[in-house]
Amino acid sequence: MTYLVNVLYIVAFALFILGLSGLTGPKTAVRGNWIAATGMGIAVVATLIAVRNTAAINWILIIAGLAIGVVLGVPPAKKTKMTAMPQLVALFNGVGGGTVALIAWAEFIETDGFSHFRPDQQPTVALVVGSLFAAIVGSVSFWGSLVAFLKLQESIPKNVEKGLIRSAKLFQAANIALLIVAVGVAVYIGLNAAPGNETSGWWIVAVLVAAGVMGLFVVFPIGGADMPVVISLLNALTGLSAAAAGLALNNTAMIVAGMIVGASGSILTNLMAVAMNRSIPAIVFGSFGGDSAAAAGPGGEQGTVKATSAADAAIQMAYANQVIVVPGYGLAVAQAQHAVKEMGDMLESKGVEVKYAIHPVAGRMPGHMNVLLAEADVEYDAMKEMDDINGEFNRTDVTLVIGANDVTNPAARNDPSSPIHGMPILNVDQSKSVIVLKRSMSSGYAGIDNPLFFAGQTSMLFGDAKKSVTEVIEELKAL
């Protein structure tokens, strides 16, 4: 049976890697998810086989845990709308981190404060260090992900969130103290881990509490503009904590799966940070977002906006050679992806070439816009990444911006004083004509003005994105 377990683990690891490779493109993403899920199923079966003869095993608890997990996990995954997917990802990731922290706590209790060890948990260093690392990082990930979920769900009042952002320096100072406490107590526990030397259970509770509060304080002051990077970073932390727990439990599957998640999450976090032209420490310790006044309205300091109608927008696009659609979070909120797809089909039937420009940090999580458009059956080849599409804006007749703000802000390129200066953006302002669909002139999630809205070639179509696109469709039908 030992050989069977090892073979099953190897198969599971191969499926993890194959599934992850499938997530590199929209065409293979669904298949990649299924492959990775199959690998995890095999890993679970292998683990159950490995522990089948353990005297302390309680199959009733295991079956109950599996049943509860299915009941709590499947319905939200099936019913959650694509607009709320970032929140779901943050919550599920947090649950993973919390699970790892509880495993570390359980190991501390089971070994009477690391005072005795089972033969399969040797070496002692792996158990102690792995458990303590998992306790700290898993707790940070759980509570930080919970705050990220509340921010994405917009459950935190705006005035409270602005106050939290303004208190960033206070939180940073507190985090340093909490980190010292968590690590210091963990070191104390580790140094006292010896046969017959039982450590009080309150010490591990102190580690979990200090790390948990630190997780809250790390994410509290981070603005919404940085949330995609935060989600990716917390995901990487959860993976690393799972790998550490695997070392403590001597479980190969947890080690490999955790390292895959940690490595891929770290790479993605770095890519997201590069896409914003910001370092990860700058995001964690010097965030911005949500603390600026709303953008100037008509006649404000930046100039006067020019409003348009659905009829005018339809005429402009119907007689264009190329139209580029730039989706943003406003498209997700309005659930306008299907209407956008219908509008794109109508324009193509009139001989207009339609492309979709995707910014790496558009929306609230990596790949958010790709997923929404794919749900509406937009052709994968029509979705263009920023580097591939930026050279085409200067020869584009009309660019339709739907709820995107910060990723189209030319201040990132032209204004050295802007908080987002240097961040790569979609060069929408180079188009011959720009139509922006927004509910109002309020600023984006980064909380800063967008000069694009006041540019001479830009016109604003105010209202709900889905309603506005539907009106454009009706006008296109009449042409």
UniProtKB/TrEMBL annotation:
Similarity-based family: Belongs to the PNT beta subunit family.
PANTHER family for this protein: NAD(P) TRANSHYDROGENASE SUBUNIT BETA (PTHR44758:SF1)
Gene Ontology cellular component terms for the protein in this record: plasma membrane
Pfam families: PNTB
Class of the enzyme per the UniProt entry, highest EC level: translocase
The protein's name in its UniProt record: NAD(P) transhydrogenase subunit beta
EC number, as in UniProt: 7.1.1.1
Reaction equation(s) it catalyzes: NAD(+) + NADPH + H(+)(in) = NADH + NADP(+) + H(+)(out)
GO molecular function: NADP binding; proton-translocating NAD(P)+ transhydrogenase activity
Protein's membrane topology: Multi-pass membrane protein
NADP transhydrogenase beta-like domain: residues covered: 6-474
Compartment(s) where it occurs, according to its Swiss-Prot or TrEMBL record: Cell inner membrane
